[in-house]
Amino acid sequence: MARFSHFLAIDWSGARGSVQKGIALALSHADGGPPVLVEPGRGWSREDVLALLRNDLPDDTLVGLDLGIALPFADCGAYFPHSDSALPDAPSLWALIDDICAGDPNLGAQTFVDHPEFKPYFRDGVHTGMHFGCDGAAHGRGRFRVTEHAQADMGCKPYSNFNLVGAAQVGKSSLTGMRMLHRLRGQLPVWPIDCLPSNGSVVAEIYTSLAALEAGRSASKAKMRSFEALNEALASLGSAQVAGTGPIDDHSSDALLTAAWLRKAGNDSARWKPASLTPDLARTEGWTFGAI
């Protein structure tokens, strides 16, 4: 019997504003059929997504969040080496971020990256903090979690969650997402920080490029901007195709393809047991579902 009956992929955004154009949600059902966008065109805010996850999830849903659920820890033995903030695990990190950013509207995280204790760990486009690298190492692309090294080994091009620069930056997305995860604490488990429960819904970190790779696309061509390209990728996953022709925004296509991929991968027990995932990593850094 399948563990999950619904699969919800959320393409997230750390952008400023009350509504984020980069947020898209898509749902697929274990019984088959094409993935569908959830209320397309409505304009989602981060608070809207939080409310949906709290109150309106279908039963036994695997929720895939396209963001980093924690910051690097294993490389330096701490999220913030040289800081007085000795945080033992990801939930304590989430709580710290949400507390510092309590006055930021729309689950924003600007106050955290501007905080004098934590600003030296980030690259913001104007300054590269002195701790953007680890223990005086060359800054380069910044610090990575173990799961991001696994993504790179699979052919993806991950970015550091301490990077706040450029279209591909994931820092703000991840920090705003951590605020949401803190507010879901005790209501919805987050794998692998929490053990995978035997029933009910659960959140897992996703990386939409992993779905694209499994659908036969390369990392450099992971984005699909036409229905034709999307449907070709869906067919590669064995999914029914979606209706439409011509252009589609890549947030919607990412969510639709990943919802279909989660349906294919989510009930595969081996995907929940990556070889490099230790209890310490699960507690501190988390993992990206599908990275092996």
Q: Overview of this structure, please?
A:
The chain has 292 residues and is an alpha/beta fold. The protein has 2 domains: 6-69 and 186-272; 90-182, no CATH class. The chain is built from 9 helices and 6 strands. It has helices at residues 46-55, 90-100, 110-114, 146-153, 171-183, 208-214, 227-236, 250-265, 279-284, and strands at 6-11, 24-29, 36-37, 61-65, 190-191, 202-205. The chain has a 6-stranded mixed β-sheet. α6 (208-214) crosses α8 and α7 packs parallel to α8. It starts with 5 loop residues before the first strand and ends in an 8-residue tail after the last helix. 45% of the residues are buried. The model has no long low-confidence stretch (mean pLDDT 94).
Write out key terms for the chains shown.
292 residues, alpha/beta, 9 helices, DUF429 domain-containing protein
- Secondary-structure element pattern, one letter each: EEEHEHHHHEEHHHH
Low-confidence parts lasting 5 or more residues at pLDDT below 50? none
Mean pLDDT: 94
The helical percent reads: 25-40%
Question: What does the largest sheet look like?
Answer: 6 strands, mixed
The portion of residues forming beta strands comes to 5-15%
Count of DSSP E strands?
A: 6
Amino-to-carboxy terminus distance: 24 Å
Assembly type of the shown chains? single chain
